[in-house]
Each structure stands twice: as C-alpha cells, then as structure tokens.
Amino acid sequence: MRKHILPLALACLMLAGCADKAPVSVDLAALSQEILDSGAFDETLYQVDEDAAALLLDMDLSACEESYVYVGTGATAEELVLLQAADEAGADALLEGLSTHLADRTAQYSAYLPEEAFKLESAAPEQYGAYVVLCISADSDKVEEILGSYLS
C-alpha cells in the first residue's frame, strides 16, 4: 500500500502544477488612474465615452465588457486604451482592431507631427487574457511596469 501512495502523491502534484491559472481580474478604473497619474504623458488625457471611443478607434466596442479610453488634444499622439472582452476570443478581435488603429495613427502623425512618431513606434497593443491595452506615451517603460503589476 505504501508503495502506491508516493506515485499517487507525485501525480497529484504534477496535475496541480499543470492546472490553468485562474483568470486575472483587473480593476480597469484603478489601473487607468494609476497610469494617468504616473507622469508617463506629456499632456493631460481626457476620458471619452464609448461612442466617441468607437469613432476615434474606428472599432466596434459593443463586445467590450468594460472600456476606458483617454485621449489628448491632438497636439501629441498620446492616448490610453484599456478594454475588457468577455473572453480571449473577443480580446483577439479587439487586439486586431487596435493594431489597425495604431498603424493608421502612425501614418497620420508621421506626416502631421513627425516629432510625435517615436511614441507611436514604441507603442504596441498588448493582450492579457481577456484584456487589451494600448498606451501611447512618452514613457512606455513606466507604463509597462504598472501594467505588469496589475496584469501578470
């Protein structure tokens, strides 16, 4: 009997190690506020409602369970987009839309305000499970640090 307990215990430990992690739950309001307060932006960003955000991003945001979109005056390329989909498949579609948005913004600012293009070139939309983030800022390292503390 004792011979069977050790292999059984090891099997249980291995299965527990392979189990999926529980989905991360993030307070997007707190995350967005911490990013906005971090000093990562050259100008003050203002939150826009979902309809304005959908127009700005040229995306359908109806699949979002939550969305926080902040933009500046246009004098800089800076913006912050935090989206939560119902699941990872929904987040995949949001990620694709934000990638297209970033490419469009990069083309616009490269011609309009080339001195802002570096912010766009260092930005990339990122997916963390059901969450999708795009942050265009002067200090992307600071933003990455904050995102890591919430989403890892």
Please explain how this structure is put together:
The chain is α+β, with helices and mostly antiparallel strands and 152 residues long. The protein has one domain (25-151). 51% of the residues lie in helices and 18% in strands. The chain has six helices and five strands, in the order ααβαββααββα. It has a five-stranded antiparallel sheet, sandwiched between helices. Mean pLDDT is 85; it is low at 1-22.
What is the gist of this entry?
The protein is built from six helices and five strands, in the order ααβαββααββα. It is of the alpha+beta class and 152 residues long. It has one domain (25-151).
Which descriptors would you attach to this protein?
152 residues, 5 strands, 18% strand, globular
Q: What is the structural class?
A: alpha+beta
C-alpha Rg (nearest Å): 20 Å
Low-confidence spans = 1-22
Whole-number average pLDDT? 85
List the helices and strands and how they pair.
Blueprint (H helix, E strand, L loop, with lengths): L1 H17 L9 H10 L8 E3 L1 H8 L6 E8 L7 E7 L2 H25 L4 H5 L4 E3 L2 E6 L3 H12 L1
Antiparallel strand pairs: 1-2, 2-3, 3-5, 4-5
